[in-house]
Amino acid sequence: MTIEQLKTKVEEELNSRELNSKARFYALDKVIPFIKDQYGFDAASLPTSKEDLKGAYKIYKGKDLSSAESSAINELYNQLS
After folding, report:
1. What is the residue-level pLDDT of the chain in tens, covering all 81 positions?
2. Which runs of consecutive H residues, i.e. helices, occur in 1-81?
3. pTM, rounded to two decimals
């Protein structure tokens, strides 16, 4: 599965929840370019632990992840399993 296919699955899941806020969508749009840059375009290249990805993104960002960014990463891993 490609990162874009994974992103689409996450977006479909978030849409199904009918959330009032688009914060997780915006966060996903921030996280995906980082993932592509650091790990490539194949979802199989992601770290096995979402905590490792969150740690790498935190270093890249230079500050703590927002709750929306953390949730977006969690959902990426939920859709992989």
Report:
1. 999 999 999 999 999 988 888 999 999 999 999 999 999 999 899 999 999 999 999 999 999 999 999 999 999 999 988
2. 3-16, 23-39, 50-61, 67-80
3. 0.91
| Rounded distance between C-alpha atoms, residue 30 and residue 10, angstroms | 14
Report the DSSP beta bridge partners of residue 42.
2
As for how many domains the chain has, the answer is 1
Cα 13 from chain centroid (whole Å): 13
Whether the Cβ atoms of residue 49 and residue 5 lie closer than 8 Å to each other: no
Q: What is the span of the domain harbouring residue 29?
A: 3-80
User: Token digits for 45?
Assistant: 């290249």
